Structure formats: structure tokens, C-alpha cells
């Protein structure tokens, strides 16, 4: 099967690309590394040359913070919609959209831009799956690396005491879900991609610490007012600390694992469990 993958040099897209190639599929990789600037691919006709013979399109591109050269609107909405429209015109059989958990209740530009692409895909005349992963962890993930560095500290500072609820999912399960979408029926499903267990931010960091062979760390609760002030001052140096990202963290992000378990045919992996 010939499959176009956007974000093919990123954490999730790169893992999908490798898995597809290992399964014997032909991959058309889309990323800056391959000379394609997704931020500028905003018209359907720009995508046509890349879709020759493509049967499935997987959109795995995403950014957690805007930069001067990358906007949420372009990266998450306009470029994907142009790709989806071109795919419809070129007879692509199905599209797999990697969205994000919680976009239905979205309230910040990151979530709203993802949801706009989801909504645009749903009205097109082709088969699709929309996968909405929670926090994804695994080798090569920047957020995972950040959490593991925090977990390694002897004293961990926690926003609001670290009681925000999260449901991390292994990148291997995200990839397994994507591969299943290649042939699964029925299509036109929206699936929340979550791990088998809910954590608080504090218990997740302590679990990562245990995995590192360390004893539980001391924790210090940092008031949200101070967290937001730090985010306002520091996000230009550390984009992931943008105030909107702190607001998403504060709200928490979890979902029932039942649908994903049924889709995979098994329970998603626990932290430290091997596939």
C-alpha cells in the first residue's frame, strides 16, 4: 500500500513511518527534512504531485506552540484541509487524522485549530478515521523527555500541587491504532487514544521516577498564579510553557479507554510494559 505521511520526521509521524515501512508499505514522507514546508502547503493543487498512486493519507503533523514561521492555523487547519481536499480530488481511499484528546471541549487556539481540521475532514466524500491521543510518551518524544527530567529531580515543583488528571498513552499504541486504521471497518470513526490508567501529574512523575529506579521525590506545590506569571514571562524562551498549555494542563485530559481497547483488540500498554 502506498501511504503519504505528514510530520514524517516528528515523534509520532516518524514512528508511524518506520512501522509502515517495516510492514512492507511504501511511504511518501512529508516534512521539512524532505524539502516540504507544511506551513506553506495551503492550496489543494500544491499537494497533487505528492498524491500520485497514494491510497491512504496519514496526517501526523502538529506543533505545541506557534513560532514566527509556524502558526496553528496553517499547520493544524489550512494545510491539512488543503491536503484532504486534494486527496478527495485524487481518489485517495482513506485519511487518518491524528488530532488531540479534548478538542471537542477546546478553548485555546491549539485545540480549536485541530478541531477545525477534524470538522472539515468529516464532510468530505471519502473514508476517514480521526484519532485523538492524550499525552504520548516514548523514546524520542520531547514532552516525555521533559517529564522524565522533572521526575529525576530530588525535589519536584508541581503546579497547583500536581492534581491535574492525565492519561498518558505509549507511542507504540498510537502506531498500532494507526496501522489498524489502514484496513479497519467501519470507517468514519472518532477514537480517543488513551492509556489504560488515569494519573495525576504528581503520580505520573512519581511513576516515571520509580521506573528510573529512584525513591519517591519530595514535592512542592506551586500556586497557579505563580505558574501563569512564569509562563507569561518565560514562554518565548521555552515555548512549551505557553500560558495556553498551562491552562490545558490545569483542566486535565482523560477519556474512557473502552473504545480504544476494543479497536486495538487488547488493553493499551501500561507504563513499562513491553509490546
Summarize the structure.
With about 280 residues, the protein is of the alpha/beta class. It is built from 10 helices and 12 strands.
Write the layout of secondary structure elements.
Elements: E1 2-6, H1 11-22, E2 26-30, H2 44-47, E3 56-59, H3 72-89, E4 94-98, H4 109-122, E5 127-133, E6 136-137, H5 142-151, E7 155-159, E8 165-166, E9 169-170, H6 171-181, E10 189-193, E11 199-200, H7 201-211, E12 218-222, H8 224-234, H9 243-251, H10 258-264
Parallel strand pairs: 1-2, 1-3, 3-4, 4-5, 5-10, 6-9, 7-12
Antiparallel strand pairs: 8-11
Helix pairs in contact: 1-6, 3-4, 5-7
Q: In words, what does this structure look like?
A:
This protein is of the alpha/beta class and 275 residues long. Helix content is 39%, strand content 18%. It has ten helices and twelve strands. Strand 1, helix 1 and strand 2 form a beta-alpha-beta unit. The radius of gyration is 19 Å and the shape is globular. The mean pLDDT is 95.
Order of helices and strands: EHEHEHEHEEHEEEHEEHEHHH
- Radius of gyration, taken over Cα atoms and rounded to an integer in Å: 19 Å
Tell me what the CATH architecture is.
3-Layer(aba) Sandwich
CATH H level, superfamily name: NAD(P)-binding Rossmann-like Domain
Structural class: alpha/beta
What topology, given as strand order, has the largest sheet?
2-1-3-4-5-10
* CATH T-level topology: Rossmann fold
The overall average pLDDT, rounded, is 95
> How many discrete structural domains?
1
CATH domain class: Alpha Beta
Indicate the proportion of strand residues. Answer: 15-25%
Using the alpha-carbon principal axes, give the shape.
globular
Let me know the largest β-sheet.
6 strands, parallel
Distance between the termini: 24 Å
